TrEMBL record, chain B:
<keyword id="KW-1003">Cell membrane</keyword>
<dbReference type="InterPro" id="IPR035906">
    <property type="entry name" value="MetI-like_sf"/>
</dbReference>
<protein>
    <submittedName>
        <fullName>ABC transporter permease</fullName>
    </submittedName>
</protein>
<keyword id="KW-0472">Membrane</keyword>
<feature type="transmembrane region" description="Helical">
    <location>
        <begin position="111"/>
        <end position="135"/>
    </location>
</feature>
<keyword id="KW-0813">Transport</keyword>
<keyword id="KW-1133">Transmembrane helix</keyword>
<dbReference type="GO" id="GO:0055085">
    <property type="term" value="P:transmembrane transport"/>
</dbReference>
<feature type="transmembrane region" description="Helical">
    <location>
        <begin position="188"/>
        <end position="210"/>
    </location>
</feature>
<feature type="transmembrane region" description="Helical">
    <location>
        <begin position="80"/>
        <end position="99"/>
    </location>
</feature>
<feature type="transmembrane region" description="Helical">
    <location>
        <begin position="20"/>
        <end position="45"/>
    </location>
</feature>
<dbReference type="InterPro" id="IPR000515">
    <property type="entry name" value="MetI-like"/>
</dbReference>
<dbReference type="Pfam" id="PF00528">
    <property type="entry name" value="BPD_transp_1"/>
</dbReference>
<feature type="domain" description="ABC transmembrane type-1">
    <location>
        <begin position="76"/>
        <end position="264"/>
    </location>
</feature>
<dbReference type="GO" id="GO:0005886">
    <property type="term" value="C:plasma membrane"/>
</dbReference>
<keyword id="KW-0812">Transmembrane</keyword>
<comment type="similarity">
    <text>Belongs to the binding-protein-dependent transport system permease family.</text>
</comment>
Length: 445, 275
């Protein structure tokens, strides 16, 4: 029994070799020359409406959202002259006096154009107090403008004015004389920004340009990302562990019972997700069915807390996703002829070994594809955690929705979306690679 | 129903045990899938406002509340405006696209097909946020049109996949035969192709309808106060606190989706028997 492929049980290894040979035959050529064939023009005309529809209402919006993660022109729009004046500044010491007068002019102009508030809010994210500084400066400039007179025509006068603006601003609020204020302003007038992406990865850029990790109590997004992956992984493992035996059992059933069991899988699949969540809200609470049943059977002494915590989220997500595993896996397993397994057994293999070495490997691509699809779906879940989970069980989607709707921080929502979409797209490419190799050995072929 | 089958004579106790264990596990999974939904149904007929068993008095009062409530009626009406419109839009666009994908092969076709199927896997929140920002610019936020477009977008990939799979078994010589007998493109499509691929088109349409009818995340972002659909209303209801009225609606939805499932299976079986 030590060497499974020894001549003691030639049957098992023979069956195995057949499978392997088939596997080898099935592996697709690496390079395939693709040529056009058929009515290409007609095909494109037929595809065009949906493709255009998706381009306009799906791709463009998603690209727009993604670009918001790195492109944030709010401050640039409000401070155009400042952006120009700070263009040549190297970030050390105070900028030249023209930057002061440009900033003062921009503050007034932006307030008149109605863009100051948004820009101030954006600056405040990077340096607390900036909002208040800008709004105070704005009202101060209003008072000062009356006795300012018209700006001088010649350069000397303008220079003197710039000098005066600088002294005045610094005298009004010392923060204008602080290089850090100007560094934040100089950073944020650049429309291209890494701030949001860095924040989404718990990093920040210091005023001198170095990228450093945020302090532990401020950096929350990596742990949210980890939590999202962890919940999805647990759900995927559970779905696989429960779905695999069920699909296997399904293929062994006689046709009539198979149909009945399939209905039992399909009914939850077609039932609205909110109905299923409502069901768990009735079944899982302290006084709910599960706890009552468990207490009356003396399995537990005190009722379990199943709702508004991670257990509830996982129970409901597994419930929602099991059909996504069972249905494709059932299709794969139905295509596997049972004769291989029977051949292995009749040639002396132990049934368990015949299952494990002959049957299971043929289902592996199906399992991999199903698990990947379940994992990808789980990554983006929003409704189940939002309704059944507690504060510590929310996944990435929740924060994307939160930053879009509640705090209206679209840059951060976009950066978190980039993370989620990148993970999803990457896994989906892996899925397609796995799924492309799925064609299962069948006797008919 | 036999729980223990007549075991084959060579099987020993570990195999028998394994067999019974597998069967128990499978019945357990089935119970897990179905029982919570089933448990919901009787509670909707309880006269009590607490959602607990055992039920002491039976009544239809929660169904009455549901039907007389203006909010719920509006949600039901909106759902039946949005879902069929989205399904029709998705079916037309998706069927055309599937026909096109079947018609020729050309470089980049796989990429194009992947792009068209991508809403199936894109996280819904991202689709929702992206469309929300886009809709604010083009003034589609809070309109029925916007919601229908968004739902059609999510449903169209289903139509493309179901129609494509029917087209795989479609005998293209019929089209040549039809055109050789003098029928034009459109006549051939209407009289030959469409009737033959109809099962795929219909089950795709059903999927698109169900997708829209169930959709909550995108609706949360895009719907204005006038476009609240059933799932959207249920979402706010459940978030506040679940009431017997919601359970009554859920019961109706379970029956409705079971009916959809039966229709879908019927279509599928007809399609199989024809092919």
């Amino acid at each position: 029994m030590t060497n499974p492929s020894s001549s003691a049980r030639p049957g098992a290894s023979l069956a195995l070799d057949t499978v392997r040979a088939q596997g080898a035959k099935r592996s697709p050529p690496l390079l395939r020359v693709r040529r056009s064939s058929g009515d290409v023009r007609g095909a494109l005309l037929l595809i065009a409406p949906l493709a255009a529809f998706m381009l306009v209402f799906f791709l463009v919006p998603v690209v727009m959202l993604m670009s918001r993660a790195v492109w944030d022109p709010v401050v640039t729009i409000a401070f155009p002259q400042t952006a120009q004046a700070l263009g040549s500044w190297n970030g050390e010491g105070l900028p030249r006096p023209d930057a002061f007068s440009a900033a003062a002019a921009d503050i007034v102009a932006a307030d008149l154009a109605g863009t100051l508030g948004e820009a101030a809010a954006r600056l405040n994210q990077d340096m607390p107090g900036m909002r208040q500084l800008l709004l105070r400066t704005r009202s101060h400039l209003d008072g000062a403008a009356d006795d300012d007179g018209t700006p001088g025509a010649d350069d000397k006068a303008r220079q003197r004015d710039e000098q005066a603006v600088e002294t005045e601003l610094v005298a009004f609020d010392g923060r204008w004389g602080d290089a850090a204020t100007w560094q934040v302003l100089a950073n944020d007038v650049q429309p291209l920004t890494l701030v949001y992406l860095l924040r989404a990865l718990d990093h920040e850029r210091t005023p001198d340009g170095a990228i450093v990790p945020l302090p532990r109590d401020e950096g929350v997004y990596l742990s949210i990302l980890g939590r999202t992956f962890w919940i999805s992984a647990v759900v995927t493992v559970l779905v696989t562990l429960l779905g695999y035996p069920l699909s296997y059992w399904l293929t062994q059933l006689p046709k009539r019972r198979q149909r009945a069991v399939l209905m039992a899988v399909l009914i939850p699949f077609w039932t609205s997700i909110l109905v299923r969540i409502a069901a768990w809200m009735v079944v899982l609470p302290r006084a709910g069915l599960v706890n009552r049943l468990a207490t009356s059977l003396h399995l537990i002494g005190t009722p379990l807390e199943l709702l508004y915590d991670r257990t509830g989220v996982i129970i409901s997500m597994v419930h929602i996703l099991i059909p996504f595993m069972v249905l494709p896996l059932f299709a794969v397993m139905s295509g596997i002829p049972s004769s291989y397994q029977r051949a292995a057994i009749s040639l002396g293999s132990h049934p368990f070994e015949a299952f494990w070495r002959v049957y299971a490997p043929q289902t592996a691509p199906g399992v991999a594809a199903g698990a990947l699809l379940v994992f990808i779906s789980a990554l983006g879940y929003y409704v189940a955690p939002a309704l059944l989970g507690g504060a510590g069980d929310q996944m990435l989607s929740y924060y994307i929705a939160y930053y879009t709707n509640t705090t209206i921080n679209w840059g951060l929502a976009a950066a978190l979306s980039v993370l989620l979409l990148a993970a999803t797209a990457l896994l989906f490419m892996v899925y397609r690679m796995v799924a492309a190799r799925r064609p299962v050995a069948s006797v008919e072929a | 129903m036999r729980l223990f089958p007549a075991f084959e004579p060579y099987q020993r106790w570990p195999e028998k045990l394994w067999y019974v264990a597998l069967r128990c596990l499978c019945y357990g999974v089935l119970a897990y899938l179905v029982l919570p939904i089933v448990a919901l149904v009787p509670l909707s007929f309880s006269a009590d406002s607490f959602l607990v068993y055992p039920i002491e008095h039976w009544s239809l009062r929660w169904y009455d509340t549901l039907v007389t409530s203006e909010t719920w009626w509006r949600a039901i009406r909106n759902s039946f405006i949005v879902a069929p419109s989205a399904a029709i839009l998705a079916t037309v666009l998706g069927t055309l696209c599937a026909l096109g994908l079947d018609r020729a092969s050309f470089p980049g076709k796989r990429v194009l097909a992947a792009f068209i199927l991508s809403p199936l896997v894109a996280p819904l929140v991202i689709v929702a946020v992206a469309m929300y920002l886009f809709y604010m610019r083009v003034h589609l936020a809070g309109t029925f049109m916007g919601l229908i477009i968004a739902h059609a977008l999510l449903g169209a990939p289903f139509v493309v996949t179901t129609v494509s799979s029917v087209l795989k078994g479609f005998d293209k010589t019929l089209v040549s035969a039809s055109s050789s007998l003098g029928a034009g493109c459109i006549e051939t499509f209407l009289r030959i192709t469409l009737p033959l691929i109809l099962p795929g088109v219909l089950s795709g349409a059903l999927f698109a309808f169900a997708t829209s009818f169930d959709e909550v995340v995108v609706t949360l972002f895009l719907a204005g106060p006038d476009q609240v659909t059933i799932p959207r209303q249920m979402f706010s209801g459940i978030r506040d606190s679940i009431t017997p009225t919601i359970v009554a609606l859920a019961t109706i939805l379970v029956l409705f989706s079971t009916a959809l499932l039966i229709v879908g299976e019927w279509i599928r079986r007809r399609g199989e028997s024809r092919a």
